[in-house]
Design a protein that fits this description.
It is a single chain. By secondary structure, the protein is of the alpha+beta class. It has 2 domains: 56 residues, no CATH class; 161 residues, Multidrug-efflux Transporter 1 Regulator Bmrr, Chain A. An 8-stranded antiparallel beta sheet has the order 1-6-8-7-3-4-2-5, with helices on both faces. A hairpin with a 1-residue loop joins strand 7 and strand 8.
Length: 232
């Protein structure tokens, strides 16, 4: 019995060392590969990874622009307003998401940065959607918003908007949407002879909805945020 066990151990040892020998041979073969080849392999792998990430984020996503009723109803929004370059709104978006990670985020941009308005005078309102339609906002959410310096207002649903949709898969999707969607919106509005502003962006899981609402709604939205119909 002891002899059989010894034989088994030897057999197992042989089976164990066979892969190790193959691995050692492989390492020996790889050691002759010049450093520049490893560098090229790394750079190619990095380039392919970045390309896949950019494509996944929406680089070639199809964009359809249409005139229709927007995808949202009356909104109860917790928001902060500001003036300045639109690139500065990221801090408010980050704060909003940290407070309400499961809510949809929303941004309203009143002025066209390509329309002659100085960057320092660009107006915006950024925040989160607390409720839609006749739904009553959660009291705890409203309190959390006010405790952190947000205002709460109810925004009317526009009757008409120029709308486009873009995939929201990564942080890069936000920048790609700005680069790809807004030129198409402007081309559509100009070609149809429409007057649609401000721009409204709604971020939800998987999608970014971008719309320029009818001009008659602009004054109502501006009044709600800056002067009245403030819920809290």
């Amino acid at each position: 019995m002891l002899e059989l066990l010894t034989l088994d151990k030897r057999e197992n040892s042989k089976k164990f060392f066979i892969p190790t020998k193959m691995f050692q041979d492989l390492l020996s073969d790889l050691s002759v590969v010049p450093p520049w080849a490893w560098l090229c392999l790394f750079l190619v792998s990095l380039a392919l990874t970045l390309a896949a990430y950019i494509i996944y984020s929406g680089l070639f996503a199809s964009i359809e622009v249409s005139s229709r009723e927007p995808c949202y109803g009356d909104l109860t929004m917790a928001y902060k307003t500001g003036r300045g370059p639109y690139k500065n709104v990221g801090a408010i978006f980050t704060e909003t998401y940290s407070l309400f990670p499961s809510n949809r985020c929303l941004g309203i941009y009143y002025d066209d940065p390509d329309g002659g308005t100085p960057a320092a005078d660009l107006r915006y309102a950024v925040g989160t959607i607390l409720a839609e339609g006749d739904v009553v906002p959660d009291a705890a959410d409203m309190q959390a918003a006010m405790d952190n310096g947000f205002k709460v207002a109810r925004l009317p649903r526009p009757n008409f908007a120029v709308v486009a949709e873009f995939p929201f898969r990564t942080t890069l999707s936000i920048y790609l949407s700005i680069w790809r969607v807004y030129p198409k919106l402007k081309e559509y509005i100009s070609g149809k002879g429409l007057c649609a502003y401000p721009a409204v962006e709604i971020y939800e899981k998987g999608h970014i909805y971008v719309s320029d609402v009818e001009a008659t709604t602009f004054d109502s939205m501006l009044a709600n945020l800056d002067f009245g119909i403030i819920l809290a």
